[in-house]
Amino acid sequence: MTDPFVATALDPARSVVVEACAGSGKTWLLVSRILRILLDGARPGDILAITYTRKAAREIAGRLREWLRELACLDDAKACEFLAARGLTPAAAQAALPRARQLIETVEQASPAMTITTFHGWFGRILGGASLRSGLAGFALAEAERPLLDEAWGLFARRCGRDPDSAAARGLTELFETFGRHNTRALLDAFVSRRAEWQVYAGEDDVDTLIARIGADLGATSDADALAAFFAAPALAATLTAYAGALEKNTAGDHKLAAALGAARALEDPAACFAALVPVFITTTGTARSRKASAAQAKRLGEAGEADFLRAHAELCERVLACLDARTEARVLAFNAAALHAGTALLEVFEAFKRSRRQMDFADLEVHVDRLLADADLAP
After folding, report:
1. 15 phi and psi, to 5 degrees?
2. 266 backbone dihedrals φ, ψ, rounded to 5°
3. With the CA atoms of 34, 35, 40 and 46 taken in that order, what torsion angle do they form, in degrees rounded to the nearest 10?
4. Which residues does 235 contact at the CB level (< 8 Å), separation at least 6?
């Protein structure tokens, strides 16, 4: 009796999606479906099977040839059993037997032949069929991207050296200083490797427009703006003064915090001042210092003074945490700006270098096929 799942998945009249993990029999199911489609009367040239690797494509093609040869040679009982295992009822298997025995000849002699290939192999065929109109005539597929990218890095570094004030050079320098050469190289190499996704995301927008979009998504400004907004908050100075006074009346530990707060406020540089303020309100784990009402504290500060103290503490902690978040978003935006200026410039050099060599790589296939299919004049 055929498994209902197999019968459904292999029914050529159905469009199916099968989700499966490694080692679950995907190849068996796929080749069985191809066989069922052939038995249903499809021409080999109308069948397209695409997978991720050449090894998998070879395995699919080899398995199909092996099965078709078996069907041509097995006795009737074994052949019917073979077909029944692939979703046919006994009666349907018997009726399909004559065609099944001829499939090996049909497939081997088909013109055009069945296509069993990788995604990139299929993309190459699409571009090959429109090479003149796509402007890619004469381009060769580079099997290895690394040597081309290494040469592009050299060209990019020399370009940055000639124009150290360019956005790309400044971005590269910032990345080097923050993350080191190895990590920066790995980051920008990864960006280049995902250029197909990037170019789809970027569309026709320039880098500055995209950085502004990212900033809007993050709600981020610059680090200086985040600090300015913190120190410009209404009544901040008065609130800090009153809070410091309450600390001086409270516990011995709070006396130290009051001294730290006073030292922080004496600093003229906003970044240094804020950095010194943070430990007064925020713990090393990044949470607000806990403060609660207590009889002893009320005795030291007075009931009204304690209420004002706790209210000021909550307000100041909230402001400090908000500024920390804003500065984090600003750093994220600055990182993205540096990485995108450097990454897109490297990508520009890389693409120009490949064009000069009339070479494409696998990512180029994806980009060009996407553009080709999106072009109303060129798409099928």
Report:
1. -95, 125
2. -80, -15
3. 40
4. none
Q: Is the pLDDT of residue 377 over 70?
A: no
* Structure confidence at residue 142 as a pLDDT band (50, 70, 90): low
Biggest distance spanned by C-alpha atoms of the chain: 101
Helix (H) or strand (E) holding 117, with range, is strand 115-118
Residue 77 burial (CB count, 10 A)? 8
Q: What percent of the chain has pLDDT over 90?
A: 69
Separation of alpha carbons 341 and 334, rounded Å: 11
Alpha-carbon separation of residue 377 from 103, 263, 267, 269 (angstroms): 38, 70, 65, 60
Bridge pairing between strands 115-118 and 48-51: parallel
Output b/e per residue, 235-267; b: 16+ Cβ within 10 A: eeeebbeebbebbeebeeebeebbebbbebeee
- Cα 300 from Cα 252, distance rounded (Å): 12
| Model confidence at 82: pLDDT above 80 | yes
Give the C-alpha separation, 225 to 120, whole Å.
47
Residue ranges per domain, the chain? 4-128, 142-380
Query: Token pair for residue 371?
Result: 């553009």
Q: Which homologous superfamily does the CATH classification assign to the domain defined by 4-128? A: P-loop containing nucleotide triphosphate hydrolases (3.40.50.300)
The type of residue at 107 is: V
The percent of residues in the chain predicted with pLDDT above 70, rounded, is 93
Is-contact 246 312, C-beta < 8 A?
Answer: yes
- Does the predicted model carry a pTM greater than 0.85? no
Strand 115-118 and strand 140-141: the pairing is unpaired
